[in-house]
Amino acid sequence: MLEGGEGVGKSTQAGLLARRLDAVVTREPGGTALGERARALLLDPSVGDVEPRAELLLMVAARAQHVGEVILPALASGRDVVCDRFTGSTIAYQGYGRGLPLEEVEQACAIASGRLVPDLTVLVELDEQVAASRRSAVPDRIEAEDAEFHARVRAGFQMLAEQCGWAVVDGGGSPEKVAEDIAEVVEYRLAPATPDRSP
Ligand code: TMP
Predict the structure, then answer these.
(1) In the predicted model, is pLDDT for residue 196 greater than 80?
(2) DSSP conformation letters of 54-114
(3) 90 lines ligand 1 (CB under 6 A)
(4) Segment 136-194, tens digit of pLDDT
(5) Which of 82, 87, 91, 170 could form a disulfide with 18, with the two C-beta atoms 3.0–4.6 Å apart?
(6) Which atom of ligand 1 is nearest to the CA of 42?
(7) Do 7 and 132 meet the contact criterion of CB atoms below 8 Å apart?
């Protein structure tokens, strides 16, 4: 799984890594018809204020569909899966960002993923100002949150990386350099496969 804030280059890197591994590439929220519709709803600024628990439940509903429809079948057929965001994002955004109790967020994630744990999670880190300058000109509902929200999310990701033994890669170089760094860490950490301790 690739994790990180908006604008750090995760989606580009997920595509590059999947090509290198000949893996299925997918994203959250999204990856299925239901998930993509939930994503559109979740990111639409015109829906106005969304209750943090409603946001959490929509995120994990999209995940439950994604795990059942895309991830588990791909793994069962012997494919590797590279996913742009997973449980770590829910803990960082809905837990640390929105301030929902972490046990509640973890329970919701466990229900959605059936306790599916990634073999490896890579956090792509980038200076907040650089990341902000790379975000879309018209921010979506979550990108439009204030700097304090994004700082809490960032701190949440850093905490998770430390606690769960994620790999951390600097997203500040060229896309090719970042891709090399991610490939190196994947090769090193997954041979032989060592599951991380993601919640
Ligand atoms: P992005 O991956 O294209 O940046 O957009 C997805 C947005 O959804 C991003 O702002 C992070 C947010 N998100 C959550 O808040 N919780 C989640 O569980 C997931 C998967 C994403």
Answers:
(1) no
(2) HHHHHHHHHHHHHIIIIIHHHHHTT--EEEES-HHHHIIIIIIIT---HHHHHHHHHHHHT
(3) yes
(4) 789 999 999 999 999 999 999 999 999 999 999 999 999 999 999 999 999 999 886 55
(5) 82
(6) 8
(7) yes
